[in-house]
């Protein structure tokens, strides 16, 4: 049996140059190869016409580009599409394409399942199977039929980005580097529940927007919803965010946005007590709060808050200096909305 060929999607120009030299080509050919992979998005070595026929043959024998087409696609009544992409280890992840006028956002996954165990999330119910390679993450973008329409990417799909930070940052590097997709990092948002080991690096090593999964302002009650609170509290996260987003911070990057995601549960985190605690917790930060409707999942006592409660919470936060919005729910009819992604049936 022949050995499995390695994917090149996710490799840097330096790595590609070393590879080309090992195959008898000049180092500069690695830059040409990177152009084909990332600027042109070509999925077949035979189409890389400024590479020699000998090199293209050698590449085809030993490597694959790494673009893998989706297995399934579902389309919502609101135009949202949910794609099922294969991963290099034989599993699958869901990716959500959200068109909205001239804006088109892709919600990408970074793991198959998740370790975080949040009480309101179907991905957590799946458990953890594996972390995606940088190539697997990039494949969700490069193999997307609507690739050229994309204006924004959010790491809000399956998995916790800080639990796969090396590969997430490698994918972001490809998307933002001059030799890659050349996007502004402000077109990318990375969402996290917060892990102590990777949090400072996330803040320092990327200029992307950050979205913190908050969902409750009180430690004990947040821990009941989100076990990650026990290891790295939301209050400690806020302390680490102050040097970057504090209202009095030196060298504040005004173009880099900080947001807090807050799913509103009936009778759990939607009272005046919670609203006042949110204001107290976040008052020193230049940030926004995204209020999110809960999408029901099986076997949970959690329930969606009604519209009047959502509006009342938004208006209270805004009146007390926290910019708050209610996020429009998209793709719920195809289980593509926040907290509903799960590929367990495709990974058995």
Structure description:
- It contains eleven helices and 14 strands.
- It has 348 residues and is α/β, with parallel strands linked by helices.
- Strands 3-4-5-6-9-10-11-12-13-14 form a ten-stranded mixed beta sheet.
- α1 (13-22) packs across α2 (29-39) and α5 (134-142) crosses α6 (165-176).
Q: What's the tally of helices?
A: 11
**Which sequence of strands runs across the widest sheet?**
3-4-5-6-9-10-11-12-13-14
Mean pLDDT: 95
Question: Tell me about the biggest sheet?
Answer: 10 strands, mixed
User: Helix fraction?
Assistant: 25-40%
Beta content comes to 15-25%
The coarse silhouette is: globular
| Span of the ends, CA to CA | 24 Å
User: Which class best fits the helix and strand makeup?
Assistant: alpha/beta
List SSEs in N-to-C order.
EHHHEEEEEEHEHEHEHEHHEHEHE
Sequence stretches where pLDDT stays below 50 over 5 or more residues: none
The number of strands is: 14
Radius of gyration based on Cα positions: 21 Å
Give a short overview.
The chain is of the alpha/beta class and 348 residues long. It has 11 helices and 14 strands.
Helix and strand arrangement:
Elements: E1 6-7, H1 13-22, H2 29-39, H3 53-62, E2 63-64, E3 72-75, E4 81-86, E5 92-100, E6 103-107, E7 111-113, H4 122-126, E8 128-131, H5 134-142, E9 152-155, H6 165-176, E10 188-192, H7 199-204, E11 209-213, H8 219-225, H9 234-245, E12 258-264, H10 272-282, E13 288-293, H11 307-319, E14 323-326
Parallel strand pairs: 1-2, 6-9, 9-10, 10-11, 11-12, 12-13, 13-14
Antiparallel strand pairs: 3-4, 4-5, 5-6, 7-8
Helix pairs in contact: 1-2, 5-6
């Amino acid at each position: 049996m022949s050995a499995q060929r390695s994917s090149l999607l996710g490799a840097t120009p330096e790595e590609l140059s070393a590879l080309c030299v090992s195959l008898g080509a000049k180092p500069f050919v690695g830059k040409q190869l990177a152009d084909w992979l990332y600027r042109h998005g070509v999925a077949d070595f035979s189409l890389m016409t400024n590479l020699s026929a000998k090199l293209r043959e050698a590449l085809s024998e030993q490597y694959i580009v790494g673009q893998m087409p989706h297995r399934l696609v579902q389309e919502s009544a609101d135009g949202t599409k949910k794609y099922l992409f294969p991963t290099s280890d034989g599993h699958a992840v869901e990716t959500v394409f959200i068109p909205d006028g001239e804006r088109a956002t892709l919600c990408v996954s970074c793991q198959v399942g998740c370790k975080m165990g949040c009480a309101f999330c179907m991905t957590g119910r799946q458990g953890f199977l594996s972390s995606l390679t940088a190539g697997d993450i990039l494949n969700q973008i490069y193999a997307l039929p609507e690739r050229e329409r994309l204006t924004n990417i959010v790491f809000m799909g399956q998995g916790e980005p800080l639990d796969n930070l090396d590969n997430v940052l490698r994918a972001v590097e490809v998307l933002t580097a001059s030799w890659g997709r050349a996007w502004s990092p402000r077109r990318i948002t990375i969402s996290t529940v917060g892990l102590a080991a990777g949090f400072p690096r996330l803040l320092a090593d990327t200029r992307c927007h950050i979205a913190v999964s908050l969902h409750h302002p009180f430690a004990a009650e947040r821990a009941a919803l989100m076990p990650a609170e026990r290891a790295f509290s939301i209050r400690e996260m806020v302390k680490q965010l102050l040097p970057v987003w504090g209202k009095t911070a030196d060298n504040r990057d005004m173009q880099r946005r900080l947001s807090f995601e807050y799913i509103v549960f009936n009778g759990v985190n939607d009272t005046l007590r919670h609203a006042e605690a949110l204001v107290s917790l976040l008052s020193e930060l230049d940030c926004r709060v995204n209020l999110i409707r809960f999408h029901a999942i099986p076997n949970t006592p959690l329930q969606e808050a009604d519209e009047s409660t959502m509006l009342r919470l938004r208006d209270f936060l805004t009146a007390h200096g926290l910019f708050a919005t209610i996020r429009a729910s998209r793709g719920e009819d195809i289980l593509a909305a926040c907290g509903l992604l799960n590929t367990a049936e495709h990974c058995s």
